[in-house]
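FORM 7B: Structural annotation worksheet

SECTION A. Query
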Amino acid sequence: MTKPLTVGVDGSDASLRALDWAVDEAARLELPLRILHASLWDRYVRPAPKLAAVRPGQPAADEAVVDAARERAARLGPGVPLTAQDVADDPFGALLRAAPEAYALVVGNRGRGELTDMLLGSVGLTVAGQASCPVVVVRGGDANVAGRFGRVTLGVGGPDDAADAVRFAFRTAAARGVRVEALHAWRSPDGDGDAGGGQAAAERVLDDALRDARRDSPGVAVHASTTEAKARTPLLAASASSDLLVVGARRRDGAVGLHLGPVNHALLHHADCPVAVVPRTG
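SECTION B. Predicted structure
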């Protein structure tokens, strides 16, 4: 059975952007779409309801959000098989429990007050840090969300977190008919004068990470580059002209609370395009 692309909605502007993005992506990937609304959402985020015509928190409001989301998705993607569901759960639990049965989870970026456009809220950050499937946080400018730049940027880290992210990036690029920009950042140890050796090692890491995907997806154009820098710097710069930024999940095993590393945190908070965090499955 084909796993659906699952999108969380709550009636807010951010979730509407996520829903629209998910409809388009499901159509490109030929996946069913699952729309998920958690009826306890309001307890956590209290969005201003854009879909519901009644006061949030009541059953009628929850039903209105789901119905309007279903109608919107059907209108935008008439060929996409879809289901819509309201569950009596908090947003974290609803999305995390849906993850094993999802191709990916899609959520809007969420902040509070005047920083809404800059900061990721607790729902997206928690889900990205703990979900067992890829998580896409839809953020960035209209051109980025609409996919007008013709490239998927792939951040290649170490070998332990690269393979699943590489496959995800190449499948996305193939479905969109765009190129993959693969970036690997490396740092020389303090006082190490062998910059040439570091560059050569970085190129080997990148070549090894991309080898299988290049063989399996010969129709996808790839531009690979390495740079000596903190990883967040070139990735954030690249996000300004990318349709999607894909990275592996650098989770901190055994950590209390959130399980993402600092690079993923920086990208989820500040990237100028949607960000896909892809956990290692092997």
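SECTION C. Observations
Strands lie at 5-8, 33-38, 82-87, 104-108, 135-138, 151-155, 179-186, 222-228, 244-248, 275-278. The chain has two domains: 5-138, 144-278.

SECTION D. Sign-off
Analyst initials: ____
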